Amino acid sequence: MLLSNYYRQFFSFIIISGIGWLIDISGFIVITTLFGLSIFHANMISPIPAITYVFWVSTKKTFDEKKSSIKTVYKYLIYFLYQLILLILVSWFGQWIYDIVTKSNLIEIGVILNNLKIIVKFMITPISMLMNFLVMKMLIEKV
Q: Using a CB cutoff of 8 Å and minimum separation of 24, what contacts does 126-134 make?
């Protein structure tokens, strides 16, 4: 029973995060293509609306919020600070991958050259999603 609840929460979080990811990737594409910002900078800006959406919807629809001395708005601020740290690390990692690929022979493959920023975003997304699920579950249900 406990494991099935965990799976239900995980899949619910993935769906909500998927919508958040669409918000994020839309902003990312606009920022990198129209404004020409680097992966690092675009990945620092584009997730902000998605972070907010995922936190509030997941708190109400996915996790079993416990009575706590910490108000939900403060939990959001904690989550947002965590996200800033994660974004810096993941953005740096994404930029590092991008830099390696652009200096390698892989960049000569047309599909990679034309879509490298998006490919890198796809590569770093699962890391963020898993971390976000674990942190949200702990923050909403345990704190």
A: 127/90, 127/93, 128/86, 128/90, 129/14, 129/17, 129/21, 131/86, 132/13, 132/17, 132/54, 132/83, 132/86, 133/9, 133/10, 133/13, 133/14, 133/17
**Model-level pTM?**
0.78
Q: Where are the alpha helices (DSSP H) in 30-109?
A: 39-45, 47-61, 72-102
Integer Cα distance of 89 and 1 in angstroms: 35
* CA torsion angle 87 90 93 97 (round to 10): -110
Q: Which residue has the tokens 């652009």?
A: 102
Q: What is the pLDDT of residues 46-104, one digit of tens each?
A: 989 999 999 999 999 999 877 778 899 999 999 999 999 998 898 889 889 888 888 88
Q: What is d(CA 141, CA 137) in angstroms, rounded to the nearest whole number?
A: 6
